[in-house]
Write a structure and sequence with these properties.
A four-stranded mixed sheet has the order 3-2-1-4, with helices on both faces. It has a three-stranded antiparallel sheet with strand order 7-9-8, covered by helices on one side. By secondary structure, it is an alpha/beta fold. It is 33% helix and 24% strand. It is globular, with a radius of gyration of 16 Å. The chain is built from six helices and nine strands. Helix 3 packs across helix 5. It has two domains: 66 residues; 98 residues, Winged helix-like DNA-binding domain superfamily/Winged helix DNA-binding domain (Arc Repressor Mutant, subunit A, Orthogonal Bundle).
Length: 184
């Protein structure tokens, strides 16, 4: 079994946990605290027996760093999806959304075909192990709003701003989550 390496990328407001083998990226997730990192390590240890902390920046990490610094608009990394076929189909379709473009959940469902529902799309987005590489932040509600709870979900707003969108706070939704509107 392959050795998995992981590193932390701290750039601007972003904190990313990156895990990879010599051949592909397995995980690139935002993290808020040490408990997030423990959860990510447990996830890795379910699939891999040797997990090693790399204290140096990998080539994969440099590519993500360049994206977050606005030096490039595309992230071309070899990745390995771990999930159901439905999740993999949703993630693959999301990867087709170009930098700076947005689609709605309904649009994504219609592109995926009859067997996919909004609920399945939302479940796949919630299980996305590649917060930046699979750009789920480009999928928004049909009324151009996004709901953001506490913690790392606010990264979605920062990524949208990085891609040139103007975001303004609209209030709170019925779940007391902050509600934002994408104006551009």
């Amino acid at each position: 079994m392959a050795t998995v390496y992981y590193e932390y990328i701290l750039i601007k407001k972003y904190k990313i946990f990156l895990a990879y083998t010599k051949d592909f990226v397995i995980q690139a997730k935002f993290f808020a605290n040490d408990s997030s990192i423990i959860n990510y390590n447990c996830f890795l240890k379910r699939y891999y027996t040797k997990v090693v902390h790399n204290r140096f920046r990998s080539d994969y990490g440099l590519i993500l760093e360049n994206f977050l610094l606005g030096k490039c608009q595309n992230i071309d990394l070899p990745i390995k999806f771990l999930g159901t076929d439905t999740n993999k189909n949703v993630w693959s379709k999301i990867m087709d959304i170009p930098f700076g473009k947005l689609i709605t959940y309904d649009d994504l469902v219609s592109q995926l075909g009859d067997s996919i529902t909004n609920k399945l799309v939302i479940q796949a987005i919630n299980k996305n192990n590649f917060d930046i590489i699979v750009p789920c932040h480009r999928v928004i509600n049909k009324n151009k709003t996004i709901s953001v709870g506490a913690g790392i979900c606010s990264e979605k707003i920062e990524l949208l701003k990085l891609e040139g969108h103007i975001i303004s706070k609209k209030g709170n939704n019925f779940c007391k989550k902050s509600l934002y509107i994408v104006e551009k």
